[in-house]
Amino acid sequence: MAPARKASKKQDIFFEKTPVALLAVSLGSLRIQSANQAARGVLGRENIEGLLITSSLGLRLQEILARDSSRASHSCKILDVDGTLVCEVEMISHQTAGADTVLVAIQNFAGRMRPEQLRQSQRMEAMGMLAGGIAHDFNNLLTIIAGYSQMLQSSVQMKTERDKTALEQVLKACERAADLTAQLLAFSRRQNAQPKVIEVAAVVNQTVGMLRRLIGEDIDLRIHNASDVGRTYADSGQLQQILLNLAINARDAMPEGGVLTIETSNVELNEDYSGQHLRVKPGDYVLLRVSDTGAGMDEMTRKRVFEPFFTTKPQGKGTGLGLSTVYGIVSQCNGSIDIYTAPGHGATFEIYLPRVHDAPMEELHSPRRVRGGRETLMLVEDEEGVRKLARAVLERAGYRVLVAASGPEALETAQHYTGSIDLLITDMVMPRMNGRELARRFEGERPGTPVLYMSGYLETSLETATGKDAPEFMQKPFAPFDLTARVRQILDSKKGNNGAARAM
After folding, report:
1. Does the residue 487 lie in any domain?
2. Neighbouring residues of 311: CB distance < 8 A, sequence distance ≥ 6
3. Residue 30 belongs to a domain
4. What stretch of H or E contains 324?
């Protein structure tokens, strides 16, 4: 066995160190399993595993790669996990490396970033990190402002209409600020996709206010929703991002003003259409059509418009990422996007999203008065203002609240507290110890304690669980009534589960 292991180790070293850019690709899925040092350098990124290889040859590509030692060159595209284009390459199938694996050599690389594109990408990444950090901190402030305002609103001391109106205006301003932070989170990609059944027309109507501010007064925005527009399974924030990006593109194409039209309707796509779009199956779809009366595009521009970093705008005026982001989101929704344009005749983007017949998933709307309780809660939040607000809200509802400003402090408090702790409420992003690690340590000390996470943005560590095992989470900013309703819901659910367990 030792010689075999030694030979395998030598093969691994050869694969990693050879100057030829090599990819190990799954024949079943056409996804990259691993890449050597040369391939990572050529593609300009470390994380390549999971990327998809595709080409205009469609399913024939699998047959071509399966031919051992084939030396024919083939133009292929490498797509990111969200469907966006990473680069175009010329590939040669080299040899099979297992029952479902083939080694592929990259011959020519057509997608290397130019120096100015690399600087632009790095600048965008830095801006995204800054935007995400600002939005996270701002959501903490909005939680405090909106929380205390709603507590005052429900107070018996608010008797005059002038005071009530003043508080209503404060809360409306908080809602507008929350919309802005949601846009910042979408830009920074710190807001993870939360697909659910949504009303497409409703999302369009909710976005109209932002679109009007975005495009300016010299552009006439027209909305036409069919009376029976169906539903789709998607992330509403990402659908808004599609609308915003297309609106920006249209605005820039109409510097002297014009008309931007957004339409929604139901359509049925047949075999002919799906034959031209391999990702799309025949069936029922919701059509989202966005049209402008701008300058339009020539055929060469139209073919490249969804490529990352491709832009016709002067240097420093465009990122070349807006339409590629739209393409990626549509692909992630298993949809399709077409563009119809010509110089001087504007542009029309037609987006087809699979129509579902399930009922839309309702958001949790807590009543104005929520039943409290006498349970003991552990509240962990590093932002002092949010910590004080949450404690006041929960204690007003009758709960005993143990508070901590960090994970280590929470663990120490729990060790010295002899009574039961019925729920752990923790922020996700904290110094010294994040919420997920705290929950893991807390489970070791007090098994079975349910956890409610809070954050100004969704952490990637929450992505892994779904369905009944998905962690409980509250997005900041949240209302005091939402907090007490969610706490009561979790505690009652725990009691119900314990009762079911005893019955068994």
Report:
1. yes
2. 317, 318, 319, 320
3. yes
4. helix 322-332
Q: What is the pTM of this model?
A: 0.47
Model pLDDT for residues 165-188, shown as the tens digit of each residue: 887 788 778 777 776 666 566 555
Is 468 within the bounds of a domain? yes
How many CB atoms neighbour CB 484 within 10 A? Answer: 24
Question: Strand ranges (DSSP E) for 59-130?
Answer: 73-79, 85-98, 101-109
Instruction: Map tokens 């943005």 to a residue.
Output: 457
Q: Which domain range does residue 61 map to?
A: 12-112
pLDDT digits (tens, 9 = 90+) for 407-451: 999 999 999 999 999 999 999 888 888 888 999 999 999 999 999
Residues 351 and 215 in one domain: yes
Name the domain boundary from 89, 112, 135: 112
Answer for the pair 375, 327: CB distance below 8 angstroms, yes or no: no
Number of domains in the chain: 4
**SS in 3 state form for 358-415?**
CCCCCCCCCCCCCCCCCCEEEEECCCHHHHHHHHHHHHHCCCEEEEECCHHHHHHHHH
**361: in domain:** no
42 lies in the same domain as 91: yes
Three-state SS at 463: coil
